[in-house]
Amino acid sequence: MRRAPGPRGLRARIVLGFAAATLLVSAVLVTTTFLLARGYLLDQRERTLTRQAFADADVLRSRLSTAGAEIGTALEELEPSGSSDVVVHHGGSWYSSSLEVGARDVPADLRDLVDDGTAATVRTGSADGPRLVVGVPVPGADLEFYELSPLTELQEVLRTLAAVLTAGAGAATLVGAAFGVWASRRVVQPLEQVAGAATRIAAGDLATRLPATQDPDLVAIVGGFNAMVDALAARIERDARFVGDVSHELRSPLTTLVTSVSVLGARRGELPPRSREALALVETELARFRRTLDDLLELARLDSDATDPHADPVDLAELAREVLVRTDRDPDLLTPEDGDTRVPVDKGRLERALRNLLDNADRHGGGVRGVEVVPRDDVVLVSVDDAGPGVPAGDRGRVFERFARGSASTRGSRPGAGLGLAIVAETAARAGGAAWVTDGPCGGARFTLSVPRSAR
């Protein structure tokens, strides 16, 4: 099945517009020039042949006025200019200066005009090409004089002129298309600059601005775009600072609560059973609250930094093994592949991202099934497989959003605040990489973090 062609781009439309306009103007000029030149040349040719026919008719009349002159002999002695032929109607008979022409070559309407005493010209066609027939009445000699002159040479001239004009129109169209290419680049260049700046801003580089311009048509666009980015950067910075300030302010009362609960925990044995249950619940919620505050502080730091700070290369395989050991997990879960797995990313942020992937597998995926560190071309991939039911295809894009904890039906029963995977995605983005989730090779879900080998 043939696919319908897609819409043409702006640059292609500009080039086609210039080419079409140039072709139209060239066609009008070529047609007008050709018609004017053709009319002028035909008119000049007709005037010249008419004067020649009158002169030849006068010469023939003079010769026939001589006593004893015969029309056949007079025609043989008549030498019309060029390659013209003469046909004469005299005394009810037709005479010709050439065997190739005769009465049949004289149009009937021209005969009628000449017979009425009116000189006239007619353009006709023949096997050898177009010709001009001039009819001249000779009253004193009872003679109708017709001179037939071929227009082949003039036709070749007009063909050559048409070919030259057509070639000129084609060359002008190509020049117009070339000018359209140049103009389209000048027109599309500001749009490409805006698109490039928007792409860098979307990638997190909020310091990107459009360069100043002296073009009066672009000053407002450049100023409005830069003002929008300034407002966006200020808003993001304000929100990040607000989250950071709130998190810092909450740490003090949280620390006090944790200390008080620790004191109560030390005297757990003296409390009645219902109080111990309440204490255990408070300890669980305080631990969850503390993790949420830590995640909010980390997100605030990530939002305030457009890029990852300069850091020494970190071996991802070794770091993954260290994280497994520090979190009391089996280091044999790690399956590294041979190759260079060093990446220039801040070790603390990368370690937190790995911890969040492991914690996510424990909380939502039934535990960690395996960890892989694989070097691929210009990136290093870290994959964590879990033993859970997997992530539905419709939720795979939003699980990395902030405060996302699965579908609405299970959100209330899931532990955590939904910030762990958001930190993983932000860490990858700041390093120039990405994070995604797919089906695991042995069931469950596979969460993958890609980190480039070179600094962004």
UniProtKB/TrEMBL annotation:
Matches recorded under Gene3D superfamilies: 1.10.287.130, 6.10.340.10, Histidine kinase-like ATPase, C-terminal domain
Reaction equations catalysed: ATP + protein L-histidine = ADP + protein N-phospho-L-histidine
Localization recorded for this chain is: Cell membrane
PROSITE patterns hit by this protein: HAMP, HIS_KIN
One annotated Gene Ontology cellular component of this protein: plasma membrane
Q: Name one GO molecular function term.
A: phosphorelay sensor kinase activity
Q: Give its E.C. classification number.
A: 2.7.13.3
Instruction: Describe the location of the HAMP domain by residue ranges.
Output: 185-237
Instruction: Please classify the protein's predominant subcellular localization into one broad category.
Output: membrane
- InterPro entries reported for this sequence: HAMP_dom (IPR003660), HATPase_C_sf (IPR036890), HATPase_dom (IPR003594), His_kinase_dom (IPR005467), HisK_dim/P_dom (IPR003661), HisK_dim/P_sf (IPR036097), Sig_transdc_His_kin-like_C (IPR004358), TCS_sensor_his_kinase (IPR050428)
Histidine kinase domain: which residues? 245-455
Superkingdom classification of source: Bacteria
Regions crossing the membrane:
12-37, 161-183
Tell me the keywords, alphabetical order: Kinase, Membrane, Phosphoprotein, Transferase, Transmembrane, Transmembrane helix, Two-component regulatory system
Please report the name of this protein according to its UniProt entry: histidine kinase
The record lists the organism as: Geodermatophilus obscurus
Its taxonomic path starts at: Bacteria, Bacillati, Actinomycetota, Actinomycetes, Geodermatophilales
